Amino acid sequence: LASREAHPESSVIDVSGVKIGGGSIGMIAGPCSVEEEDRMHRIAEQVAAAGANLFRGGAYKPRTSPYAFQGLGEEGLKRLRDVGQAHGMPVVTEVTDPRLVGLVAEYADMLQVGARNMQNFALLNEVGASQRPVLLKRGMSATITDLLMCAEYILSQGNPNVVLCERGIKSFDPATRNLFDVAAVPLVQQLSHLPIIVDPSHATGKPELIPACAMAGLAAGADGIHIEVHDCPEVAKSDGPQALLPEQYAELTSQLKSLAKLL
Ligand code: PEP
Ligand code: MN
Q1: CA of 242, nearest ligand number
Q2: What is the ipTM of this complex?
Q3: Looking at residue 205, what is its pLDDT?
Q4: Which class is 13-262 in CATH?
Q5: Pocket of ligand 1 (CB under 6 A)
Q6: What is the C-alpha to C-alpha distance for residues 62 and 55, in angstroms, rounded to an integer?
Q7: Measuring CA to CA, how many Å separate 16 from each of 53, 116, 131, 165, 253?
Q8: What are the φ/ψ torsions at residue 61 (nearest 5 degrees)?
Q9: Is 206 exposed, middle or buried (0-12, 13-18, 19+ CB in 10 A)?
């Protein structure tokens, strides 16, 4: 179902009115975690003004340590939805547990399956049974075939609304958080009709590398760009060190717009 051979035409996924694929670029931005309400409004206002069309934030966080901040749960889902609505952006948020898919789908316009859960087949089946669009992130040690087979799980449950995401894979070199596999973009587009976006925030873990990798992703043909933005990265509840400041995000989107004109 995911293969280009069976479906030559590129799919366009509609996320509550925002289209991803077929030349429409999904600009997903927001903090890693849903945080205080006033901060969420501030960030949303600034990313929307910079051209973001989808707002993100995690209410259920898959953390390496069980003692690290785990997210605000349903309170966070409500806040994300309300802030997104106030600033005219549909919202994307991660669901980490098959038992939570119904609840998260009540608030979210798009369900994110994170890298750590890419092969959580019970979760894939559950988001596949939902009709909410799904953002499926590549596992950190997953091959392109693995990624496409996981999309197949979702599609085979009857949900055709899948967007893939390249977010970097493990490498031997700790110089970047992950290794940004930009070739995944044209390769996936050769093999599949599904849109694929890039996430240079998690791929590099370094704010100073994000703009170049976002531009590379767009030049490679990505259908969207996913960036973490925080107005005070030092106090962020998660992934502060890789966050762009709102003004850096605005500068990047203006560069991306210039690049898009050249392409
Ligand atoms: C995230 O989007 O905040 C996240 C946890 O991403 P990933 O699953 O790609 O690590
Ligand atoms: Mn994050």
Answers
A1: 2
A2: 0.99
A3: 98
A4: alpha beta
A5: 32, 58, 62, 114-116, 137, 167, 202
A6: 19
A7: 11, 26, 12, 19, 22
A8: -105, 130
A9: middle
Q: Which residue ranges in the chain fall short of pLDDT 70?
A: none
Q: Indicate which residue's Cα is closest to atom 5 of ligand 1.
A: 114
Question: What's the pLDDT at 183?
Answer: 98
Residue 122 is inside which H or E element, if any?
helix 121-129
**Going by CA atoms, what residue is nearest to atom 6 of ligand 1?**
114
For residue 20, give Cα distances in angstroms to 57, 131, 245: 19, 16, 25
Q: Tell me which residue has tokens 């596949």.
A: 128
Query: Given ligand 1 and candidates 56, 63, 72, 112, which is best to mutate, with the most ligand atoms within 8 Å of its CB?
Result: 112
Ligand 2 mean position to 205 CA, how many Å? 9
pLDDT of residue 20: 98
Q: The tokens 């690290």 sit on which residue?
A: 68
CA 252 – CA 230 distance, rounded (Å): 14
Residues 6+ apart with CB under 8 A from 120: 98, 113
Give the phi and the psi of residue 74 in degrees, each rounded to 5: -60, -35
Contact yes or no for 188/178 (Cβ under 8 A): no
- Residue of minimum CA distance from atom 9 in ligand 1: 115
Dist. CA 101–CA 112, nearest whole Å:
10
